[in-house]
Design a protein that fits this description.
Six copies of one chain form a homohexamer.
Chain A: E1 12-26, E2 32-40, E3 43-49, E4 65-75, E5 78-88, H1 107-119, H2 124-134, H3 137-145, H4 159-177, H5 183-192, H6 197-200, H7 211-215, H8 217-230, H9 238-249, H10 266-291, E6 300-301, E7 306-307
Parallel strand pairs in A: 3-5
Antiparallel strand pairs in A: 1-2, 1-4, 2-3, 4-5, 6-7
């Protein structure tokens, strides 16, 4: 397909894109037309349907994949597509990962790395619990496709997996370096710390907060998901269940960040540190990636409360 | 029974008290003895077992109910019991409410008032849910006996019930006065808002934080209790379940107070206001009750961040 | 009269509206004209005087009531009035409540409910004080017409009355439910808690902060108003005057919200809770009213620090 | 008189001291006696009346001036007086400034410096207002004797005068250096900024918060005092009254410090800066004076949130 | 020269201005042109080069001084210059102080006042240190030309000098009024408190944060500048050096304002008070100057967290 | 030597201990004696010199190492030494690490691990800089012996080395896992991040804050130490020096924690995360070590703002 960032004035396109936005409008002389924004993973583009009632324009909605036939023009210095025909594409005609930002790492390889951790958990109850999720195919499929955020860091396909692996890796390092930590509990908590995001944020293409997300948030959802499964594992020690859930609810580290309890266990503290570390360094990575070749000061960044720039060496 | 606040020097006692504290000690000349604190709802009293190995001294532990035989003496201006014999009392020989602070209101009457609200819920799912708890005898027994706190406000037998009724009453007033509020959702949320305290704080006599309380807190516990029961009610609307749980998790009103979400629904906001109102006015009531006849300034109060005093009229 | 929300392209109007805005401008070819915004309680409308020096255009200012003769046209999709003639209207020709948002409740009925409270105050000094204000006709007239805010909650005609009654009603409920509270002091304080707004915010049509409001604020103004009147009531106990004034100055509850003292009396605390409750629930009511049929998430709300939505049941 | 800091074991005293504390007690063998603390400006001393019912012991209360006859002994390394006789002293027999900390500066000279400022105010209304207070003898007497605090800075006789003069001097400097400031308004506001302390804190010997102080605070009291007087000055411009009162209420600078408004005028800002400057430097002066010859680190100081020490040069 | 604020439609200009902004653009019909903003100390003006490739248009960059030949026209109500020719001006052809805001006070006189303080320092080490800077010609030149800020207060030529003098004057007043302060240390610290700004902010015309400024800030830079010089002064007491540096690093008063230590010495506290006082009063002075004749409320000011207005008298 | 924790009543000692405390006192009957506290790494012990003027008692001061001859007795249930003779020990007679808490890890091995990092720095300037310190014998000796704190975490001999290595190890992990980070800069910054503690805290035995520490703090001291050395390295790039210093000053992460700048470079952010991680996990390790076998809740911990307990598995 012709990616949006490669288009030039004068190109003719007939490819499938995601319809990100659509709104009916009227020209100054009263003629109706449609404003569209079409999207693929390389960017977005304004488009116009000047004859929305034409028979060549199929019915379609925002977030549908649509085959677009049209000409690329330039208006006030920006590219624009004049659309002649639109056809709603069927599932299978397109690959969603062409239309959304996606992890720069190999998703299957990352999942295999996750599975190595899962398979090394020695505590029989934690082992059963983690396998019951990560060996489940439908869970694997959803976990691989999910983002870890609407925007901010890891807001792309595979983002939840990449962030989870980053946190698990850090926790594994901590468990090696600091004997105070129980490896099995810490790795298990890290694997599940953001599992609630599967229900907090809807799948692509919308990738937006759900009612569950708005009303409960991924911390509470995660505890519910784990609690339900734990009840199915015979003999799961009550105290261990409490400690695992505590790590989940305390992983934001501060009440002000939405954790209803501060860390009260060493593993809860360590998980919070790992989550914070991976999130912050990924955020700065995305910030610098977005800056491209710009070696200069990037302006005040609200998240870091500082003007940021790339290092000179 | 002879209540502690009525004892005088020279009295002989042979009554059942709660053993609040026990510690072995040694006199200056090396003789072992035991320091005790015994308690009933009117106060506490120091006691000594000068001959702990005597056959008259049964085995017993802290928080046991013990029948105490001894003489009331005076030491350095304070009363003290010299214990001759101790017998561990059996269940049924004593009434726990004689040994702990207890609500000044009639517990059965309060529960009946709660049931009027339960029976007036019109939404079939919320009605089933509330009845499944409040019509259950073992739940009723526990709910009536529980406190709402280790210390602070409502830290007495019947305290959870009294506070819950206070909040439900306020919510009922709000629902009458402000049409924006849905009565059924608000009353149900108020009935359950502190239900997690049944597991956060252990029953009397210990009335202390449990592992569940320390690691999860009553907000998360409450959501788990409701979630488990809701799954058993066929057809319970998913969105209604979310909204009810949201009211529970948001009822502290601020992230800094342990709510993982701020109120996002009118009923969640109203519940937070009612909880805060009943808690604050009860706290000042207990403060002024404790002050007795003192009409003067009571000194800086950390909770209210102010020096407080009773009003002159 | 023809309300603004009912106008259509092609209508001819000859009605009285409020002039909300007026500014002289020049067309591209150098001709002077006037931009106006006219207002009634249903909305606002752009208007143009293309010939401002015409003899048909009377002299008038911003916030004058003006009779407008003109034609409704459409420009860039929005309605606009081309004004032919303007006449400044005299008092009596219009009813201000047609031009501003107004309480949805019956103002006279609300005032009668206030008077029931006033007449039930038993303390002779507080009774004299409240009657000296609320039985005064000119006070009644101003109190009925005032808003309780420039914007935010209760920012409409009758808003001060409606909010005061809401707070008094809550305080009456508290006085019944919590014996620690002195009813007379609490009701009196509630009646006067925002009386300073009569001078903090100017009357409609401007409904804006005055110099008094900017420099002192309604809390200090309220204390001055009460202090002046109390000096005229022989034998008014000094301590009671202090306690009443304290309730007024502490009713915002926190120094950060402009109260120079935190509540130090039970009634001051209760008044703060009532004020906060009525204000918050009214704010959410106005938010949801403004959302109309929108059952969806309304976006992040700065005041509630949350995304809000209406409840599903 | 024999000052307390000069007493030694074996001295016999027969001098007038202030009774700071008195409490009845009982010896181990049941004999009643009285514990006293007596005070003069150099310190405090424990004292015992071993025979409180003796005819030599007059009736007296805490904060009375008492003539004490007794012997200085040593108990557990500290001095103590065994009192034989006590006589309540009459007014005129003692000079209160012998019994309380007192300004190290000449009080009369400071008042004369204040009067120079008063006499230089050019605005006729502000001039009338300041003279109506500072030329009044009874006001002068109270103003000279008052402290500016119960403890913290300037908590001594003449403290209110010394602090007021310090602030006025700074404001005078500001008015010279920064033309944006109106001298008359600023000097007047500085003269009156803490006038409310005359009623917030009771006179020596008690020097403690009054009901007025607890319930209203010196900011509100100050505004009331000025408002009452302004009403007596014919033609006092309303706007000038507002501006003066604003300076008073905003002089703490932050809502969190009890100002119901932040400074909105240049003079209000300047007054806040002057008040803060004089208070902070005086506090550090008192801290270093109390440290005597100690050139070392004095330990963490809560007010300055720092470990403090004297400078080496 | 013809200052920008004096230009009218129809004027022809041929004067030197600073080029503040330049960007290439294209007309609707594809013709390239340049957008410029030119600046002098009286304001800024839009300008267009319609024929950027003309031989009359010299090469030049942003922040160059350029001689502009063109005609003043009016576009959409605003003035604009159509530029015919541009010539880059050489150093000496223009006076930078014509192009930037400049202190309203006499810079040479202010420096002389600084020198009086320098010459009165009695401590031999502090005297050597201050003279080594302020008697140095190249330092003097830079110090006189520098601003004290990019924007906010004293953001003009001579601003660093004016602010430093303001702070030194205040410190001199403090040293007279409060004996706890050591004059030599305080005056020296005041003279150098913002010396780091010479490297934190680049010189005019850019007057912007440097890498040093972004990465270290003027507090750290100032300590480095002093430390380097102190090492060259034989026998400079180590403790005195520490105390001077402490005053520099603590002069913002709060960790939250970028001081790594809170004031621990009386002089550090006094310097913080002086810095804060001069900065705040200057800020309000600039605010009111910018308001011109406007005697009305100026709207909410974020720095002062208040709506501000000029005083009525 | 006989360690303090192994002593029993009746033992006779003649060993070298550290004198932690000494104070002259007087018995009830007026005889002078000395109170001492003696210390080794296993604990502290009260001691008395009943005859301080005896010829057997050498001159010595607090923090001297003293050979103590005496008998262990028991007083009120606690051990105590009655000292007969004291001799001040000479350097070489004792090993300081017997008298203070010391890292549980091998100090020489840790230093070798540090040196591996030092030797792997590729950037020539950073390599020269790190080697100039870590290859210096006197620096090595001091660095190995220093603590990283007066109390809190790593407050023992070797603590600065252990903490530095912990942080460097984490940074090394980050540099492997996150390509956005420059390894050389990050490792160098980690090696030096707390180098200022060498002057902020005095060496054992006192291990207390110095004047440098109180007035400047280890962040500023560290920057000075690095700056001085960098000036000696020819050609050290100015920008690299800034970036390294920035990492040092920003490593506390927040202004409120004493960093005068928030992290503006990825490496500064990473260093802050590593420092925080090692400090927090070490703190919890020390907390749990101090708790010994206690598996129960340890009570509210101010640093973690939570009640803490060891994990059950």
């Amino acid at each position: 397909m012709k990616y949006i960032e490669t288009l030039h004035e004068g190109d003719r396109i007939s490819d499938i894109y995601l319809c990100k936005f659509r709104q009916a409008a009227t020209t100054k002389n009263g003629k109706p037309y449609d404003n569209l924004i079409i999207q693929d993973k390389t960017g977005v583009l304004d488009a116009k349907i000047w004859d929305p009632n034409s028979s060549g324009i199929d019915e379609f909605d925002i977030l549908d994949y649509i085959e677009v036939f049209g000409d690329v023009t330039s208006f006030q210095g920006a590219l624009q597509v004049n659309i002649k025909r639109i056809r709603k594409a069927g599932e299978g005609e397109y690959n969603p990962s062409d239309y959304f930002p996606v992890s720069s790492k190999n998703i299957d390889v990352m999942y295999q790395e996750i599975m190595v951790y899962v398979n090394n958990i020695k505590n029989t109850y934690l082992s059963q619990l983690t396998k019951s999720f990560f060996e489940d195919n439908s869970f694997e499929k959803k976990f691989k496709a999910h983002s870890a955020a609407k925007s901010v860091h890891h807001g792309f396909i595979g983002g939840l997996l990449e962030h989870t692996l980053g946190v698990v890796n850090l926790c594994n390092y901590y468990a090696n370096a600091y004997p105070v930590l129980n490896r099995d509990l810490l790795i298990t908590a890290a694997l599940f710390h953001d599992v609630g995001k599967l229900k907090e944020i809807s799948e692509f293409p919308s990738n937006d907060y759900t009612d569950d997300g708005q009303l409960l948030g991924h911390i509470i959802i995660g505890v519910e998901i784990l609690g339900e499964r734990i009840r199915c594992i015979e003999g799961f020690p009550a105290c261990l269940a409490l400690e695992l859930k505590h790590c989940i609810i305390a992983h934001h580290g501060e009440l002000a960040y939405g954790s209803p309890k501060k860390p009260a266990l060493a593993e809860a503290l360590a998980l919070n540190l790992a989550d914070n570390t991976d999130a912050k360094i990924q955020t700065i990575t995305e910030l610098f990636n977005a800056a491209g070749d710009n070696q200069d000061w990037l302006g005040y960044n609200r998240l870091f409360e500082s003007n940021m720039r790339k290092t000179s060496i």
